[in-house]
Amino acid sequence: MRWLRAWAPALRMARREALRSRGRSALVIAMIGLPVAMMSFVSATYDMHQLTPVEELTRQIGQYDAQVEWVADGPITQPPLGDGYSSTGRMRESPPTAAELLAVLPAGSTVSQVAEGGVDVFTPNGIGGVSARGVDLTDPRLSGFVELLSGVAPARADEVALNEGLADRLGVGVGGKIRTANPEYTYTVTAVVELPSSLYETVVFRPGVLPPPVDWLVDTPAPVLWADVQQLNEHGLVVRSRAVALDPPAVPVDDHVDRHQVEEVALGAIMVVLIMLEVVLLAGPAFAVGARRRSRDLALVAAAGGTPAHLRRIVLADGVVLGLGAAIAAVALGVTVAVLTLPLFEQFLVHARAGGLRIFPVAQLGVVLLAVGAGLAAAMVPAFTAARQSVVTVLAGRRGVTRSRKRWITLGTVLAAGGAAIAVAGAGIGGTTAIMAGLVLGELGLVLLTPSLVGLIARAGRWLPLAPRIALRDTARNRGSAAPAISAVMAAVAGAVAIGAFLGSDEQQRFDSYEPRMPVGNVLVRQNAPDTAPPPDVARVQEAVRQVLPGARAHVLQSPVCVDPAEGRGCSLRLDMPPAARCPVSSGHDITTEQRDLAALEDARCAWERGIGSIQFAVVDDAAALEAISSAPAADLAQARQTLAAGGLVVADPRYISGGMVSVIVTEWQQPTAKRAQQDPADRPPVTVPAVALPSGTQTAAFAVATPALIQRLGLGVRRDLVIATVGHVASAEETERLNGAVHAVAGNLGVEVELGAQYREEPIVWILGVVAALVALGAAGIATGLAAADGRADLATLGAVGASPRVRRLLSLSQSGVISGLGAVLGVLAGLGTTAVLIAALNAGGDHIRFGDAPMRLFLPWETIAIVLAVPLVAMAGAGLLTRSRLPIERRL
Questions:
Q1: Is 331 helix (H, G, I), strand (E, B) or coil?
Q2: pLDDT tens-digit readout, 374-429
Q3: Global confidence as pTM
Q4: 265, 414, 431 from 270: Cα distances, Å
Q5: Contact partners, residue 830, CB within 8 Å, separation at least 6
Q6: Would you give the DSSP letter of residue 121?
Q7: Please, which residues bridge with residue 508 across strands?
Q8: For residue 188, what are the β-bridge partners?
Q9: Mean of the pLDDT values across residues 845-866?
Q10: What whole-number distance in Å separates Cα of residue 554 and Cα of residue 570?
Q11: What does the alpha-carbon distance between residue 140 and residue 219 come to, in Å, rounded to a whole number?
């Protein structure tokens, strides 16, 4: 224990120094503790929501012994947990009955049916979709699967239970009524329940109300062991057994390593490294402040016989003591916040109840070690600097000249260039881990280069006024403390700007690549029913649209159908692409996805096609409907009307037109029914008709538009089952719900589609990162400014002696803060935007946007983040100017 005895005096001195300099100690504990508290919070929150096997089973099957699903008519194989299966036989087509299940289950077993799906219910604004479950709430063995909060369990088919979210939305309590659509039926609410596995708005029916598929919960006289599971597998049942999950059998384990899991672990480790690097850069100047203030004490220790190891140990002990204090405070804060915010996470983020109050002790111990390690790492450079200081120089009150060593410049350049190369290579192959690793190396390189950049920029001080000139000189002289502070600002700003720019660029690409399914704001009402169903009353549908959306211009469209519709019979139209427009490699039947992707990079004809419009073929007998179908200019619509009048087609994709003509193919088929045998799809001979294409970039609701006369010529009939309306604005969610209710009153099988257009989603993380970067920059600037003020007392005394005015001190402090925060912010913005530009160029070079027909990614400037971080120097300068006393110190020198 000799090493402990050697550390004991240093630790006592560190504790005394921490109590003596409480302001600095609190600042260091906050800088180390806040990121560590975040890790503690994440660890505790993760552990609370990470269910144990017993908790997960309880939410899946309650107190039952197993859950079974009959999937095949022959033997299957499954893993022990039942999270998959494989079968070489025929899949089961009809749902099993309780009697069929009991016939293959052990004697004395009982079963209970559970179902999951969705239903449409009438809301105060119209009709909306909600989740639905079908379970027997009177069954006590479902405890843990569902909990009864108030009321009594539904006992009849016309009774339901609601969870609290849906009850609040509908404004219905126990004893109230709800009405479903498709089919329309009224139910009495008898209870309010909670499903711990899902807090989404849910209605719970009696078993048998919801349509298949359903699962079955099984209660057996004895636990369902692995041998029982395998026996049931012979009948085609997938089994999730409580006994097997709690005591899995010894089966061969797949040694395959999931690449995504490895990448997640690597990304997590890289993020921890980045956070710890930021903590070290932030806390390092604070330890440098302490070491500089204690430089005379350390010099006296050395003069009394202390070795460099003793001096290093004294400074490193500060890191241990403050890191341990930060760890204790961080764990207490993180766990407390995790417990207090648990209901918010359950309700609004996870949408499920946590397993319990847990803190993840192993992770919390790791958090403590990380905090202590961060304190040690932050004190490392000041410790070695203090150990190398000249005793005579310190005791005489002089300072040496600081220069950047060439080996650090070389290493920083190599790391920065190597990191950029790795990030670009990772972007080219889609490797997130490689990208992040390259960014970390590049950041380390920039950190090592910062002292050299400071020295280079300080040369410009000769052309500046007095206060900025002294500020630049002191920054260059105190590189050991100023460079980490500038690096901390640069790293935080670069990370915030890079992430904000990349997220914004990705969202902008999604926005640019969006293809509306019809003109923005238009509304389409269509019938979801087979061709044999009676067509809707389209006149009433038009009137409903006009009532809900005043000013809307509604038009009736028709769909092509078989001339004599029958059960199971179908007919469709498609266009035949000319040979010159086809992808050359798609003629082979054995082409792989990878081959198609490679071909798309060389030939635009091989790019993956996107569907155009919400309707494949729209039939119009009123040419005015074209205005609602397409957003093309009036001249193009006039030409389209002429083509329709001449018996031609209007198409949205010009590739299908060759010489002003297009080839149309009719396909018909017959599904097996009780009266008709199956008939595979068969093509009729192609028919060539004149055609005109809508201009590129046009928003269109139909891939092709025809007249009833042309459809009749092709040997098909039409049915009036569509209504499209030009609204003039994008319908709100409330208007959409009201429209759903209005068209449902006409027919229950009508659906509403509203074209919202491309929606740019503002990422809150961009603002959060900007604020975090601003706080980091302010903290680093404050620390470095304090150090410069402490080191510059002699200079200030000299200025006072030669007649400088008191406001010089305020201007000097203001300039020092501006130099540190401004230099870090500018370098960070440039580094962040440069990193994002390189990544975007690499991604565009990869060609993914070409293969999938997307717009290329372009650099999006996150002005919110940039504005926040560039405003930091002004805030830091204002704070330094307000908090600095104008009185110049008077010191006596020997």
A1: helix
A2: 888 888 878 887 777 777 677 766 655 455 566 767 877 888 888 877 777 776 66
A3: 0.72
A4: 9, 20, 14
A5: none
A6: E
A7: none
A8: 159, 177
A9: 73
A10: 28
A11: 12
CA-wise closest residue to 271 among 74, 466, 443: 443
Beta-bridged to residue 137, according to DSSP, are none
- Do residues 685 and 714 lie in contact, with contact meaning Cβ atoms separated by under 8 Å? no
Counting Cβ atoms within 10 Å, is residue 14 exposed (0-12), middle (13-18) or buried (19+)?
A: buried
Find out whether 771 and 872 touch, Cβ atoms under 8 Å. Answer: no
Helix (H) or strand (E) holding 127, with range, is strand 126-134
**Burial of 160 from C-beta contacts in 10 A (0-12 / 13-18 / 19+):** buried
DSSP designation for 694: P
Q: In sequence order, what are the residues at sequence separation of 6 or more whose Cβ sits closer than 8 angstroms to the Cβ of residue 568?
A: 670, 671, 672, 673, 676
What b/e sequence results for 69-80 when a residue is b if at least 16 CB atoms lie within 10 Å of its CB, and e otherwise? bbbbeeebebeb
Judge residue 302's burial from the number of C-beta atoms within 10 Å of its C-beta, 0-12 exposed, 13-18 middle, 19 or more buried.
buried
- Residue 188 has phi, psi (to 5 degrees) of -100, 130
Q: What CA–CA distance (Å, rounded) separates 472 from 457?
A: 8
DSSP string, 217-241: EEE-SS---HHHHHHHHTTTEEEEE
Q: Is 560 helix (H, G, I), strand (E, B) or coil?
A: strand
> Which uninterrupted H or E stretch holds 569?
strand 569-576
| Of 139-153, 165-179, 398-412, 603-617, minimum mean pLDDT range | 398-412
Distance CA 355, CA 353 (A): 7
Handedness of CA 576, 577, 578, 582 (dihedral sign): negative
Strand partners, 693: 651
Three-state DSSP class for residue 257 = coil
DSSP 768: H
In angstroms, how far is CA 460 from the centroid of its own chain?
44
Mean pLDDT rounded to a whole number for the chain: 82
- Provide mean pLDDT across the span 842-864: 73
Please, what's the b/e burial string for 680-689 (b: 16 or more CB within 10 A of its CB; e: otherwise)?
Answer: eeeeeeebeb
Q: Bridge partners of 570?
A: 669
Res. 339: pLDDT tops 90: yes
Helix intervals (H) in 430-570: 432-458, 466-477, 479-513, 538-548
Quote the DSSP letter at residue 610. Answer: -
Q: How many CB atoms lie within 10 A of CB 465?
A: 10
- Average the pLDDT over 256-284 and give the result: 67
Q: Which two tokens stand for residue 531?
A: 């061709």
In sequence order, what are the beta bridge partners of 103? Answer: none
**Amino acid residing at 530:** P
Q: Assign 386 to helix, strand or coil.
A: helix
List Cβ<8 Å contacts ≥24 apart for 798-801. 799/888, 800/888, 800/889, 800/890
Q: Are 540 and 511 in contact (CB under 8 A)?
A: no
pLDDT band at 556 (very low <50, low <70, confident <90, very high): very high
User: What is the C-alpha separation between 67 and 114, in angstroms, rounded?
Assistant: 10
β-bridge mates for residue 679, sequence order: 670
Instruction: Tell me how far apart the alpha carbons of residues 666 and 689 are, in angstroms, rounded to a whole number.
Output: 13
Q: Please classify residue 22 by burial: count the beta carbons closer than 10 Å to its beta carbon, then call 0-12 exposed, 13-18 middle and 19+ buried.
A: exposed
